[in-house]
Design goal:
alpha+beta; Alpha-Beta Plaits; 4 strands; 10% strand
Length: 294
Amino acid sequence: MFYNFLHNRWFRLIAALVGSFVSAAALNIFIVPLGLYTGGLMGMCQVIRTLLQTYAGLSFGAYDIAGVMYFILNIPILLVAYKTLGRGLVVRTLICTVAYSLFYSIIPIPAAPVIEDPLTACLLAGIVTGVGSGIILTCGCSGGGLDVVGLCLSKRGSGVTVGKFSITFNAVLYIACLFLFNASVAIYSIIYNFFGAMVLDRMHQQNVNVQAMIFTREDETQLSQFIIERLGRSVTYWNGIGAYTGENVHVLCVCLSKYEIEELRHAVRSIDPHAFLVVQEGVHVDGNFPRKLN
């Protein structure tokens, strides 16, 4: 059931929209009432909005202009990322960006903080936001902003994950907040985004590398062809002998993302129900190992 859900494009799009709602809700309910700032492109838009209100005396009524600014700034980013990410991901990102901007604008902001303790609110908001953003990325979509830039760098094999790039950009953003506002605003905002980025990296399945070893007595060429043609991964195999049975066995070794392991598990069960599959998560891979966004 999980395999069918994860690889159905309409279910994935619905899940990505749910992730957009979760992220926007966490921001409006826990962070905005405390006068803190989220990170990334939206955080930059919030800072600009505050500066326009404070120093330019502009009033935007009941609407938060940061959501509109966020959508406008995403347009050139998506145009630049079109060649790297492809039409499908750009279209899905545009849909999620519109949804996120809409949710951010319509979800009511509490007049008083729901959780008065800033540290607790930041930790909870970071976890919830990270889960929501991770769902979006795992479903092959993106919420726009820095996610798109991070995905481009990740796909080009720079070794930069979405979460790491987000932390680097936010460090610069919060240094600016430190000088523009006060230390507590910058510190609590950093705590919120740090936990959000950590949870995001763990939720983003395409970002987690795994090593799979398959032990089968059937013809190994069928599994090898599936891995090469369907998953686009290379595979190494050799012949072994089962110590208990004394029978010949084929051992296949492949490195892939956590997202792809479900498809491999499904194929192994279909080709050889008696095969033995070992999966090791979180391995470090260097060299010619392309990252895929699916």
